[in-house]
Amino acid sequence: MTLQQLRYVVCAAECRSMNQAAAKLFISQPSLSATVKDLEEELDMEIFLRSNRGITLTAEGEDFLGYARQILQQYQLMEEKFIEKKRPKQKFSVSMQHYTFAVQAFIEMAKDFGMDDYEFAVHETKTHEVIENVRNQKSEIGILYLNDFNRPVMEKIFQENAVEFTELFTCGIYVFLAKGNPLATKEKIQLEDLKDYPCLSFEQGEENSFYFAEEVFSTYDYKQIIKTDDRATILNLMVGLNGYTLCSGIICNDLNGNGYAAVPLDTDEKMKIGYIKKKGMPLSRLGERYICELKKFETNIL
After folding, report:
1. Which of 107, 116, 217, 233 is most buried by its number of CB atoms within 10 A?
2. What is the percent of the chain where pLDDT is above 90?
3. How far is CA 227 from each of CA 57, 107, 193, 231, rounded to the nearest angstrom?
4. Other C-beta atoms within 10 Å of 48: how many?
5. For residues 199 and 234, what is the distance between their CA atoms, to the nearest angstrom?
6. Residue 240, SS3?
7. Which residues on neighbouring strands pair with residue 275, listed in sequence order?
């Protein structure tokens, strides 16, 4: 196995086409295909499935790609430091469901380490993409939740994708809504109280599943529901339509402003907020600090 073979595989996976990858690498398509085929034979596994429409990664190929990217990134860092005499920027990326507190923790970590020597990335995205980004090492850490309903399925998915879940804290279920909503002054809200207000839910795309929903009670038959991709849009809908969403109750007024409230939902249901990482891989220094910042929010649980 050579670095050149790893570069060819990564380029082919990104282009999803041998022809496009060959053009990008300035080599012939037969030469690229032969090199990749030699690597597959050496590894005794298929990295790509080939068809008239192009190429797609196999499950083993996805796993291999994550390690290949890591090796190439480490080689680039060594090359820049010892050959080009550059001081490379350390990279850190996190993927998350739509949690303001997870963004706030990232901000605090970035402030502490500074922006000059590090290259940061934040992906606030769909549940399956959080898992996928950690699996292929696009992100070191993924933030999501488990509860009694989704845990069996999610743990199976974690195992299939070679990622492991660590719990950070347990939260009750809260109704997050604008302070102008008539329900915002209640001490506790019943599900029946919500029937005349639109439930705001994050769209999960093609991988839509009750188990991937960011909100608990995903199988509940809501009278009104609006799906969106964006956290800022949800905040606007809370104000404009008296909408609501179900959440952990951890409030970040510094980012969301003071116009919103979290009222306990009358239920015994709990959410376990935690993080996933690649199985068997230790956290980086930045990853450890990010987790420390997240744990501070346990004191903010209502």
Report:
1. 217
2. 74
3. 30, 27, 20, 11
4. 20
5. 10
6. helix
7. 143, 166
- Cβ atoms of 8 and 36 closer than 8 Å: yes
pLDDT digits (tens, 9 = 90+) for 88-146: 678 899 999 999 999 999 999 999 888 777 889 999 999 999 999 999 999 999 999 99
Q: How far apart, in whole angstroms, are the C-alpha atoms of residue 193 and residue 178?
A: 15
Rounded Cα–Cα distance for residues 62 and 81 (Å): 29
What is the dihedral angle through the alpha carbons of 101, 106, 109, 111, rounded to the nearest 10 degrees?
-100
The SS3 of residue 110 is helix
pTM: 0.72
Q: Give the number of C-alpha atoms closer than 13 A to the C-alpha of residue 70, restricted to the C-beta side.
A: 14
| Cβ 93 vs Cβ 125: under 8 Å | no
Output the six-digit token pair for 214. Answer: 């960011």
Residue with tokens 């605090």: 108
The residue type found at 99 is: Y
| 273 CB-side CA count, 13 A | 26
Residue bearing tokens 């999803």: 16
The structure tokens listed for 197 are 């207000």
pLDDT of residue 171: 93
